Design the sequence.
């Protein structure tokens, strides 16, 4: 009878109380698709920032430039989009979420499609295209969000995000561990600086405008 009760208890035990195998947590390394999507997003954010700064100089130096509020709103939108793009890539690499990258890529794809439709009817100014052929520019702009969507939708990237953010390993504070060594190092640096100041004093009077100002009553 006792053995039967023990067997039943072993079968109805809560899954959370059973010891888990280390392999149940999945791979520790970031999958290649998730890493590639994150890196592409961060590089895109850097490229957008550089492009925005260079294009802003061209627009402001042009003889006919837009109103000040238009420039300010454009810079704010660009800055917000740079932060969102970089944050989406970092979230995928960390395993927090892939929703932000999917949303930003979908918005980018929609915006590029709308601009491409307008470019067929109305030619875009050279300040926006940078002198590149419009078909080449449109193909590159469409391929970027599509590539990110395909990478983040890979099975390994989905599994990585489902595992949740990686747990950061707590490491001991090196200052607390090696406090005497840190104190000796700071003391040695202080002695070296003091010795340098004593052996190499500032000689002569200040020359130049500062001396003239000080000498005048």
Sequence:
């Amino acid at each position: 009878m006792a053995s039967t009760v023990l067997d039943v208890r072993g079968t109805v035990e809560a899954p959370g109380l059973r010891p888990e195998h280390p392999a149940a947590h999945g791979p520790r390394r970031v999958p290649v698709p998730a890493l590639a999507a994150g890196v592409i997003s961060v590089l895109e954010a850097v490229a957008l920032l550089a492009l925005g700064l260079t294009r802003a100089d061209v627009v402001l130096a042009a003889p006919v430039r837009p109103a000040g509020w238009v420039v300010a709103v454009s810079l704010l939108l660009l800055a917000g989009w740079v932060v969102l793009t970089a944050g989406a890539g970092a979230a995928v690499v960390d395993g927090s979420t892939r929703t932000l990258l999917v949303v930003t890529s979908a918005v980018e794809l929609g915006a590029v499609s709308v601009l491409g439709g307008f470019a067929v009817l109305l030619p875009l100014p050279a300040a926006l295209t940078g002198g590149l052929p419009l078909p080449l520019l449109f193909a590159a702009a469409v391929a970027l969000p599509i590539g990110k969507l395909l990478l983040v939708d890979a099975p390994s990237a989905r599994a990585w995000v489902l595992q949740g953010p990686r747990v950061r390993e707590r490491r001991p504070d090196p200052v607390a561990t090696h406090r005497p060594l840190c104190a000796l190092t700071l003391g040695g640096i202080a002695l070296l600086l003091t010795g340098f100041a004593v052996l190499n004093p500032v000689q002569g009077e200040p020359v130049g405008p500062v001396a003239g100002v000080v000498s005048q009553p």
About this structure: Residues 32-61 form the longest helix (30 residues). Residues 1-27, 210-215 have pLDDT under 50 and may be disordered.
